[in-house]
Amino acid sequence: MLSVKDLHVHYGVIEALKGVSIDVNEGEIVSLIGANGAGKTTMLQAISGIVKKSSGDVEFLGQSIYKTNPKNIVAAGLTQVPEGRRIFTGLSVYENLMMGAFLRKDKKGIEEDLQKVYKQFPILEQRINQDASTLSGGEQQMLAMGRALMAKPKLMLLDEPSMGLAPILVKEIFSIIKEINAQGTTVLLVEQNAKMALSIAHRAYVLETGKIVLSGTGEELINSPEIQKAYLGG
Ligand code: ATP
């Protein structure tokens, strides 16, 4: 579904991605783990068309999106849930959700998806008219995921969904990611919480200073001594 080939990204003289290649197949949850500054966010932003790519290619559903603008990438079925949620404060929960559907014209489909989002996240329905800024961190993460679902994505990119959340909420968010995947959305997940990210991943990649250093199934990586030592504190 997604194929990133030899991707390079520079910020001025800093090379944040040094030739990264990854694949995501339809139906999978793929995790990309790595320490602070490894280039995980850059990777997602480059795929979504938000940061400028220096060279390489990104194919989505068999077509290059290397030069496609972010809006058309969303329209093609690829939606990102950004780091730090980036919900729209000053807008209600409902308005935030509807922002996710801004490119859609199918009123009936939008209403159906809104009902699905309420079913997935009952707390959002309870808070529907509340200013989004008054939500807790976990609720804001749910809102950001709900907003992404309103775009009806085929592939959802998630940037650090566990950031700043208490362990019990992290578990809840990860179990929701599994449910979203089971309902047919392919997921590419970026995380510093390696244990959780590997535990739900079909496959995973390890990014270190702009390069993929290891890949395998989630289970293989969780059991790898290198990963245990570097990322799982064991
Ligand atoms: P974190 O988990 O801390 O967000 P990350 O793995 O997502 O880290 P990136 O945010 O992609 O890493 O950063 C990769 C490298 O690129 C880092 O060295 C960072 O300092 C640098 N970088 C990121 N954004 C910019 C920018 N806008 N301008 C200059 N350098 C940047």
Tell me what portion of residues adopts beta-strand conformation: 25-35%
Count of the separate structural domains: 1
CATH architecture: 3-Layer(aba) Sandwich
Q: How far is the first residue's CA from the last residue's CA? A: 34 Å
- Provide the gyration radius in Å: 17 Å
Secondary-structure blueprint:
Elements: E1 2-11, E2 14-24, E3 29-33, H1 40-47, E4 55-60, E5 63-64, H2 70-76, E6 78-81, H3 93-99, H4 107-120, H5 122-126, H6 137-149, E7 155-159, H7 167-182, E8 186-191, H8 194-200, E9 203-208, E10 211-217, H9 218-223, H10 225-231
This protein binds adenosine-5'-triphosphate (ATP).
Keywords: Amino-acid transport, ATP-binding, Nucleotide-binding, Transport
Organism: Faecalitalea cylindroides
GO molecular function: ATP binding; ATP hydrolysis activity; branched-chain amino acid transmembrane transporter activity
Outline the structure in words.
This protein is α/β, with parallel strands linked by helices and 234 residues long. The chain has one domain: Rossmann fold. Helix content is 38%, strand content 26%. It contains 10 helices and 10 strands. The chain has a 6-stranded mixed sheet with strand order 6-7-8-3-9-10, with helices on both faces. A hairpin with a 2-residue loop joins strand 9 and strand 10. Helix 3 runs parallel beside helix 6. It is globular, with a radius of gyration of 17 Å. The model has no long low-confidence stretch (mean pLDDT 94). Bound molecules: adenosine-5'-triphosphate (ATP). Adenosine-5'-triphosphate (ATP) binds next to strand 2 and helix 1. Keywords: Amino-acid transport, ATP-binding, Nucleotide-binding, Transport. This is ABC transporter ATP-binding protein. GO terms for molecular function: ATP binding; ATP hydrolysis activity; branched-chain amino acid transmembrane transporter activity. It comes from Faecalitalea cylindroides. Belongs to the ABC transporter superfamily.
